[in-house]
Amino acid sequence: MNRWPKISLGLRLFFLYFILVGMTAYMVSKTVIQELKPTVRQTTEETLVDMANLLAVLAEEDVANGKLSESRFSQLLATYGQRAPQARIWEVGKKAINHRIYITDKLGIVIADSWQQDVGKDYSQWNDVYLTLRGQYGARTTIEDPKDPLSTVMHVAAPIYHKGGIIGSVTVAKSNRSVQPFIDLSKRNVLFGMVWMSGLVLLVGALFAWRIHSALNRLEDYATKMGEGEKVSKPTFRIFYEYGTLSDALEKMRNQLDGKQYVEEYVQTLTHELKSPLSAIKGASEILQMPLPEDKVTRFASNIERESDRMQSLVDKLLELARIEKRLELEQVQPISLKQMVSEVVASADARLSAKLVTVSIKIDENIAVLGDTFLLKQAVFNLMDNALDFVYSEGGIEWSTDISKQNVRLSIFNSGPHIPDYAMPRLTERFYSLARENGVKSTGLGLNFVEQVTKLHQGTLQVENVESGVKVTLTLPTL
């Protein structure tokens, strides 16, 4: 007993889709959020570099003259540090200046400070000043409160040049706490957008899962009613064309199973094919029961023999087809020399070739071989030869040839003769379908069907085409 719960295919697909969307949303949001903080800080550092270099150019003259503390520039720095902007950047308010600017001389002594608190102090030990005064990129991040990870301050310095030498440095500092609100806002927006987008994607997935489930239910209902013998219309699908193909296949199967296109046609045609020779045999036997001259007795006895042979041929070929259709694959395979096989078939048809004065040419390399069932493939070649003899012109020609590629061997037979009518081309391999021969007699209509079944069993294809001056039939078979 199966203990697993029955879960519909649509629901299973949605669960899988849900897991994939959830994992993707989680990984993407996690990656984006992790990259937000360093990206914002990198952007902030780049802005501080520009600002420090601008101030270094503006402060050059006053620092060189040693009058920075008394200059207009120093007063402007102090005024800048005391400003209280009333700004609102997106959803974040800004009411204080977060930048701190200080300038040192070439010894690292602070000579100007926008906060007016460290003038005169020695900052030469700090990396921003120490490295800058030595011509390197000076930057540092210092934490003000070890217990508060957000209390870090970023310092970026730029050298003050005068006559090719460094005479001081300008440092611009900014607390990382001032940019944290923007980071938090971005995180919320990313999470909100990811949740909203995931919900929308899941909604679309649920819609598709529902459509798949409903389509399967329609197909299941159609198959069930069809199996019960109900007359039900074939379901149509505008989006899922695969279901439309399956629906067409079920419709075709129904037509075949209920006898419309398979059983009725098969039985009726078989009955018709047997009825004709039976009627001829019955008529000839009734006539033979009356006194007749010797020549007429021989004539009607020949009719009985000919019609009996026709019935025997029909029954034999039907049995051969039945055996082939039951086989899913070849049981015994071996290398088959195509030239040898064709030569044997041509030799067996010598009497008919002589009667019609037909010439045969075999253009097949002795080294060409295929892997297959010798008996079945030879019977198929016999059928092709018989067909060619039925339609070839008297004193005409038949030509066997091969064409080989890396994957396939194409075995072809050409016969000079009338072209096959266009209306008959699609039906040539149907059971019992036959065209009248030169003498007006029809065959059993099973020969090409047998050839097609044998070819398919050998994983090959059959092609019949009209060519110049005749008809060409090609068997395409896999190479060894």
From TrEMBL:
Molecular function as annotated in GO: protein histidine kinase activity
EC number: 2.7.13.3
Location of the Histidine kinase domain: 269-480
Enzyme class: transferase
Reactions catalysed according to its record: ATP + protein L-histidine = ADP + protein N-phospho-L-histidine
Chief subcellular location: membrane
Pfam families (UniProt xref): HATPase_c, HisKA
Segments passing through the bilayer: 9-28, 190-210
InterPro entries per the UniProt record, alphabetical: HATPase_C_sf, HATPase_dom, His_kinase_dom, HisK_dim/P_dom, HisK_dim/P_sf, Sensor-like_sf, TCS_sensor_his_kinase
UniProt keyword terms in alphabetical order: Kinase, Membrane, Phosphoprotein, Transferase, Transmembrane, Transmembrane helix
Gene3D superfamilies: 1.10.287.130, Histidine kinase-like ATPase, C-terminal domain
SMART domains for this protein: HATPase_c, HisKA
Protein name: histidine kinase
Species for this entry: Vibrio hippocampi
High-level lineage: Bacteria, Pseudomonadati, Pseudomonadota, Gammaproteobacteria, Vibrionales
